[in-house]
Structures are given as C-alpha cells and as structure tokens.
C-alpha cells in the first residue's frame, strides 16, 4: 500500500470508529494515517536520492 492509500484507509477507519464509538478502530485509523505520512516521506527521500544519483551519473 502506498502512503496515500494508507492515509485514506486510515481516515475511513477513524471515521467508522468515530461513528460506531469503537475507540480501538478509531485509534487504528489514526495510527494508519501516521504510517501513511511516514511512507510518503520515505517515498520523497527515495525520489530525491534517485534524482541526485542521476545527476551524479550525468556529470
């Protein structure tokens, strides 16, 4: 799952937990959103590292 997918799924779980009063589901959704943010940050770092690698190879 990508960072965006995790974030979206987390929001759905959080909302479902909120509606049903299921605090565990709500907390799981919040946790999944944070995991999505971390994945997105990692993806950005990876992309920047690849760009830098290409620049180094091109020089």
Total DSSP helices? 2
Q: Kindly state the number of beta strands.
A: 0
Shape call: rod-shaped
| Secondary structure category | mainly alpha
Radius of gyration: 17 Å
| Count of discrete structural domains | 1
The low-pLDDT segments are: none
Q: Could you spell the SSE succession in H and E letters? A: HH
Average pLDDT number:
94
How widely separated are the two ends?
A: 35 Å
Helix content: over 70%
Q: What can you tell me about this protein's structure?
A:
There is one protein chain. This protein has helices spanning 3-20, 23-58. With 59 residues, it is mainly α. The chain is rod-shaped. α1 packs antiparallel against α2 (23-58). It has one domain (3-58). 92% of the residues lie in helices and 0% in strands. The longest helix is centred in the C-terminal third of the chain and has 36 residues, at 23-58.
What layout of secondary structure does this protein have?
Blueprint lengths: L2 H18 L2 H36 L1
Helix pairs in contact: 1-2
Short description:
92% of the residues lie in helices and 0% in strands. The protein is mainly α and 59 residues long.
What labels would you give this structure?
rod-shaped; 2 helices; mainly alpha
